[in-house]
Model the fold of this input.
Amino acid sequence: MGYKTIRKRAESSFTEKKSEFIGYISPAETEEEAIAFINEIRAMHRKATHNCYAYILRNNNTSRHSDDGEPGGTAGMPIYDVLSKNGITDVVCVVTRYFGGILLGTGGLVHAYSKGASTALANSDIVTMEVADSLKISCDYTMYGMIGSVLPEYEAIIRNTEYSDIVCVYADVKAELTAELISKLIDKCNGKVDIKKLSNGYVEF
Done:
């Protein structure tokens, strides 16, 4: 089963009734990575009024959120909700606030922290990770064109191609399609193809 995450860090900023909000988002696969990112943002904004955060990890189904001094439920949970409702995991988000002197009220805070998370997320690259098999497909040059025409039918991603006395194509294919792809290649190439499964894991599609 696949999952959605982000490819790289992103940020956003806006002003709400003189308070400055800065949203930061980053990939994180472990709680240690998430905490390190939170501490990095805190160090950048030592004079900020609040550094509120949330993270969601596949590892042990871990999730945490913090209001960092804001009224309970007005900051960390709204950040978490943005990530959760978008189906994003292996991610950490921090929204920093510099208080501008005007109270926003409960509804205003929820709106502002949600906006901080959602705009940072919008600036990131959301990717889908699928369980995939990495294959090494070897054939002679007469079958190379056939392989090149079959692989796209199964959404396979060609990672590398080596040319020598034979051609070796390295490709990733969703695990659920591997058996069907192998059968199709053997059939189309009249058995004149060697296919080895090198590894299995999550791959970006």
